[in-house]
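Can you give me the bound-state structure? Components:
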Amino acid sequence: MFSMDILVQKYGGTSVANPERIKNVAQRVVTAKNEGKSVVVVVSAMGDSTDDLIELAAQINGEPPAREMDMLLATGEQVTIALLAMAIKALGHDVVSLTGPQAGILTESFHGKARILDINTKRVMKELEEGKIVVVAGFQGVCREGDITTLGRGGSDTTAVALAAALKGNVCEIYTDVDGVYTTNPRLVPEASKLKAICYEEMLELASLGAQVLHPRSVELGKSYGVEIHVRSSFNYNEGTVVKEGNQLENKELVSGVAYDINVAKIALIEIPDKPGISFKIFQALADESIDVDIIVQSIGRDGRIDISFTLPRTDLRRAFDILQEKVIKQIGGKEVVFDDGVAKLSIVGAGMVSRPGVAAKMFEALAAEDINIEMISTSEIKVSCIIKDTDIEKGVKVVHKYFSLDNK
Amino acid sequence: MFSMDILVQKYGGTSVANPERIKNVAQRVVTAKNEGKSVVVVVSAMGDSTDDLIELAAQINGEPPAREMDMLLATGEQVTIALLAMAIKALGHDVVSLTGPQAGILTESFHGKARILDINTKRVMKELEEGKIVVVAGFQGVCREGDITTLGRGGSDTTAVALAAALKGNVCEIYTDVDGVYTTNPRLVPEASKLKAICYEEMLELASLGAQVLHPRSVELGKSYGVEIHVRSSFNYNEGTVVKEGNQLENKELVSGVAYDINVAKIALIEIPDKPGISFKIFQALADESIDVDIIVQSIGRDGRIDISFTLPRTDLRRAFDILQEKVIKQIGGKEVVFDDGVAKLSIVGAGMVSRPGVAAKMFEALAAEDINIEMISTSEIKVSCIIKDTDIEKGVKVVHKYFSLDNK
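Here's the bound-state model for the whole set.
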């Protein structure tokens, strides 16, 4: 076997939303091939086609079986790979499309959210060695039973990075509809600037905080297998943002980005007993209903009573409140359950803040300067998050972005 | 392994064109299951979805590679099997959908027109033995190389009959948008009556003559493996038409049906040399261009010259005429090439006419009674065809239908 310079590219749904865009992607793929690369292209379903299929299923069965949902949704990517292969062929290049199962993507049999277990690269390597461009359906695989599985949200990113790792590629290019990763949302803060590089840990924090450029699972995979992820736009030729090892980063800023999330609500359990096992009972009851809790704050006990407050996705507020009100508070005792659906989370992320005191203080100073009250605080090694009123979020993001000198010069 | 009463049902594109109709099909399938049958359901793509995919491909590549076209089109049936499985599950029955490859349908690798080589029924049998209803994607299979293939026009009928044969089922029900096979087109002749039974040979003649109820390949398969094919409507519960062995038929009529085809043109080569090898040169030149010739008539030679005329699909007339005019006639010599694109073919079909003289004469008598001129005649064991003016076809079908006492009483 000879040595190949393998490049994995991934194009998201908006990049392949119609025939014109598919032809544009074909042109980009061929350009990389002409530069001497062995190219593997991973694609998502066209535009909103996945949503259309979900809607179709909903008309037939309100709770469609997960296995059949995977059977249905997998057709979306299969349409795209066939069309992209046709477009590449029209440019005169040898090409072959492969479904997830054909590309050897073996997954768990947990339909709808399967994790990749292994990739058998035999077929892909054979096609690459014959000089073909290989187009692979993202988001899907096959379980040991021979059934089609899907990987859940962000699955195509995961397919691409996993393929790059399995094929021993060093770089995976993720093409999307934005230029790269920004210091904050440019639609909110026009002064936001594009990051040239960011480390995996920072990207993970930003991704989980609502900067929906890359799915966290793909970032974790990149970190585990040392695959650099180059996030860039399919609509221009600008350099994007490279996600890589933190120690390779030069000119490290204290803070890389300001993230925010307004799908946040707060619940507080007031004057509950201050004794062992109470927290367990509360959060196990929520976990049983698959409700994700984010920041948890416990007050200092007084007269044998404490308050516990926490944040959660606003979309889960109703369900969580009902469980606590109807069941948990009656079981454990306590004065009342209160909620606030008017909060938001503002966070700063940066590997550079590790062992650099004063970063959190500077964030609080910025918020104080705009008279913004902080309701809850949470800190980790590379992140500080504050819960504030959601009506203050735009003002908050702007002032923090400015205080940390992230505004584009 | 215990004995099972296996029933294969097939539902065409119009029967599954939208969610409502898919639910209706689910209801029918469940009814058969509740009657104690082990049910395998084969389905086509929804309504016009295959045409939509072809149109999408055309926007990207005027000559899409056949392998990628198969990859694209196979998604149509995959959508239907997932949705139908969801609909059956909603009715409370265990069900599993299988793509052609998953159902073990092994084909040639001749993309777009692959023939079934073998069916590995292991997976289907396993699911049936677990009591599940099995929904299989028609029209598709997998070749030895592991690529997805499609079976070409009428492929879902072929899948269904082949599965019935492989599973040792005795009957295959083909659900369509008509009640069964009629003595002629009921839209043209309101007096047309539905046939209770018809033999494979008659069905083959009717199918190839434009009665597009069943694809000829599925009829051939049924004949080879002794699978009775029950053609019926998915929109009512009427008994349809059973296609089976001729010797099982009672009350055999002389003529079973009157078929016609207006996609017909006639070409004549005038005063060409009357010597060996001339016919070969003419028809090989047409075969090289994949032009199907139907009826051929050669005049009696005079002065070392003959005329040869033949019919062909009207859609191929232009190409055929150009080949003969520009190449063939110059090569073999002859006076001229003339054509007529205003003809049609009218045929009577019936296994009962074997060794019963006078059937053809009665057809000619019927046509003469309406003053219809016959331009060409072709006969086989169970068929008589006449080429007449296409403007006479409606009148011709009606009078022949009446003369053979086929009008519904």
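A couple of observations. Chain B has a mean pLDDT of 91. Chain B touches chain A at residues 19, 22-23, 53, 56-57, 59-62, 64-65, 67-69, 71-72, 74-75, 78-79, 81-83, 85-87, 89-90, 96-97, 99, 102, 123, 146-148 (CB under 8 Å).
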